[in-house]
């Protein structure tokens, strides 16, 4: 009888701990909910920071295989980044070019550089001073997703804007 009571109390304690963790994650913005910083959920995000860029605008655009042309959905992200950068004229950024694991290191470094340059050029065309954007290529050296499948490769074919 005592074992059943202890087991029931233990189960209740575990459930309440899980419930509190979920509530804490929601209150702090943890857990990957992707909420907006300005929407009251993540009031601790500093305006003009990398976290602000990620939460409110998006920090990356994606590319097709062996292509350095920014896709249409990426152009929208870069337009939002240009508007965000106009609000924070003191912010300078790196535009990082990345590639998936296929191909040689040299090929992927060159492809990553072309991707970074094209994303940078679209920001400049949208009114951002080119002096505020430095490009760098990591090729296949910094994958966002590990794996040798199309889903992983698609996540790794990207350009990422990072606040300096």
Query: Secondary-structure element order, as H and E?
Result: HHEHEHEHE
Multimeric state of these chains? single chain
**Helix proportion:** 40-55%
CATH architecture of the largest domain: 2-Layer Sandwich
Strand content: 5-15%
- The count of strands amounts to 4
CATH topology of the largest domain: 60s Ribosomal Protein L30, Chain: A
N- and C-termini, Cα separation = 62 Å
In CATH, what is the class of the largest domain? Alpha Beta
SS content category:
alpha+beta
**CATH superfamily name of the largest domain?**
OmpA-like domain
**Alpha-carbon Rg, integer:** 21 Å
Count of individual helical segments: 5
Q: How are the strands of the largest sheet arranged?
A: 1-4-2-3
Describe this protein's structure.
The chain is 48% helix and 13% strand. The chain is an alpha+beta fold and 164 residues long. The protein folds into two domains: 33 residues; 127 residues, 2-Layer Sandwich (60s Ribosomal Protein L30, Chain: A), CATH 3.30.1330.60. The protein is globular, with a radius of gyration of 21 Å. The N and C termini lie far apart (62 Å). About 23% of the residues have low confidence.
Question: What's the topology here?
Answer:
Blueprint: H1 2-28, H2 50-56, E1 60-62, H3 72-87, E2 93-98, H4 105-125, E3 133-139, H5 150-156, E4 158-163
Parallel strand pairs: 2-3
Antiparallel strand pairs: 1-4, 2-4
In short:
This protein is an alpha+beta fold and 164 residues long. It has helices at 2-28, 50-56, 72-87, 105-125, 150-156, and strands at 60-62, 93-98, 133-139, 158-163.
């Amino acid at each position: 009888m005592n074992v059943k009571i202890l087991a029931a109390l233990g189960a209740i304690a575990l459930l309440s701990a899980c419930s509190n963790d979920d509530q804490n994650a929601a209150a702090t913005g943890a857990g990957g909910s992707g909420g907006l910083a300005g929407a009251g959920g993540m009031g601790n995000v500093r305006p003009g920071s990398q976290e602000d860029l990620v939460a409110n605008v998006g920090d990356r655009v994606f590319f097709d295989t062996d292509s350095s042309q920014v896709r249409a959905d990426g152009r929208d992200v870069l337009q939002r980044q240009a508007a965000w950068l106009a609000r924070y004229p003191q912010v300078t950024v790196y535009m990082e070019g990345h590639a998936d694991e296929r191909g040689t290191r040299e090929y992927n470094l060159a492809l990553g550089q072309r991707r970074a340059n094209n994303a940078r050029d679209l920001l400049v065309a949208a009114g951002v001073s080119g002096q505020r954007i430095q490009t760098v290529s990591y090729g296949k050296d910094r994958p966002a997703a590990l794996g040798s499948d199309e889903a992983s490769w698609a996540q790794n074919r990207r350009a990422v804007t990072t606040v300096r």
